[in-house]
UniProtKB/TrEMBL annotation:
One of its GO terms (molecular function) is zinc ion binding. Residues 187-215 form the C2H2-type domain. It comes from the Eukaryota. InterPro entries: DZIP1_N, DZIP_RILPL, Znf_C2H2_sf, Znf_C2H2_type. Belongs to the DZIP C2H2-type zinc-finger protein family. One of its GO terms (cellular component) is cytoplasm. It comes from Pan troglodytes (Chimpanzee). Interacts with DAZ1. Interacts with the BBSome; recruits the BBSome to centriolar satellites of the cilium. Interacts with PCM1; localizes DZIP1 and the associated BBSome to centriolar satellites. Interacts with RAB8A (GDP-bound inactive form); recruits RAB8A to the basal body of the cilium and prevents its inhibition by GDI2. Interacts with GDI2; negatively regulates the interaction of GDI2 with GDP-bound RAB8A. Interacts with GLI3; retains GLI3 within the cytoplasm. Interacts with CEP164. Interacts with IFT88. One of its GO terms (biological process) is heart development. It is found in: Cytoplasm, Cytoskeleton, Cilium basal body; Cytoplasm, Cytoskeleton, Microtubule organizing center, Centrosome, Centriole; Nucleus. This is Cilium assembly protein DZIP1. The keyword Protein biosynthesis does not apply. Keywords: Cell projection, Cilium, Cilium biogenesis/degradation, Coiled coil, Cytoplasm, Cytoskeleton, Developmental protein, Metal-binding, Nucleus, Zinc, Zinc-finger. Molecular adapter that recruits protein complexes required for cilium assembly and function to the cilium basal body. At the exit of mitosis, localizes to the basal body and ciliary base of the forming primary cilium where it recruits and activates RAB8A to direct vesicle-mediated transport of proteins to the cilium. Also recruits the BBSome, a complex involved in cilium biogenesis, by bridging it to PCM1 at the centriolar satellites of the cilium.
């Protein structure tokens, strides 16, 4: 249901015409001006009961079979009549036979029921708005979660690559440190710039990498 100046009013005009709806909105705005500032504060939107200005549609109500509505759970019929039932004015209604007014206790019961329905409509709108807000937050959170998962997957791959590179460099540094500590005890290859810790490694290297050079060197 729509709100005008934070006060609940339906957009559809009643049998009295659109001027009544405008007058009701003006009355609601005037009463809001007299409301204390604390009434509009807090998480809930400001709420105020609108005046009852609509006439009772007795012909339409007479056509409703209440037992049938209850048995069939006919919510559509309730929706079609909820506005007239909630916002109709009963104080001026008279009995067509004796011209007596509505019993005060019965009138009080009906008015309390009207106020209850109006507040439930207000609560329904507020909760629906909150639900839409939370659904949008959930959608954005889901998008953020998907992006975070992709980023974590990418970073995990980068970390794996860096670990492998770190391991390779650590092994290289360890080998170089051993060679530095050995100083003159390493064996330099005569065909390239590589050096080895012992003669066996050097011979194996020459046989694998420098077979032709070694053969030519032997003939000389």
């Amino acid at each position: 249901m729509p709100f005008q100046k934070h006060v609940y009013y339906p957009l559809t005009s009643g049998p009295e015409g659109p001027d009544v709806a405008v007058a009701a909105a003006a009355a609601g705005a005037a009463s809001m001006a007299c409301a204390p500032p604390s009434a509009a504060s807090g998480p809930l939107p400001f709420f105020q009961f609108r005046p009852r200005l609509e006439s009772v549609d007795w012909r339409r109500l007479s056509a409703i079979d209440v037992d049938k509505v209850a048995g069939a759970v006919d919510v559509l019929t309730l929706q079609e009549n909820i506005m007239n039932i909630t916002f109709c004015k009963l104080e001026d209604e008279k009995c067509p036979h004796c011209q007596s007014g509505v019993d005060p206790v019965l009138l009080k019961l009906i008015r309390l029921a009207q106020f209850t329905i109006e507040y439930l409509l207000h609560s329904q709108e507020f909760l629906t708005s909150q639900l839409h807000t939370l659904e949008e937050r959930l959608r954005l959170s889901h998008c953020d979660s998907e992006q975070s998962k992709k980023l974590l997957t990418k970073q995990a791959g980068e970390i794996k690559t860096l670990k492998e590179e770190c391991k390779r460099r650590k092994k290289m540094i360890s080998t170089q440190q051993l060679m530095i500590e050995a100083k003159a005890n390493y064996y330099q290859c005569h065909f390239c710039d590589k050096a080895f810790m012992n003669q066996a490694f050097l011979q194996s290297h020459i046989q694998r990498r420098h077979t032709e050079e070694n053969s030519g060197f032997g003939h000389l």
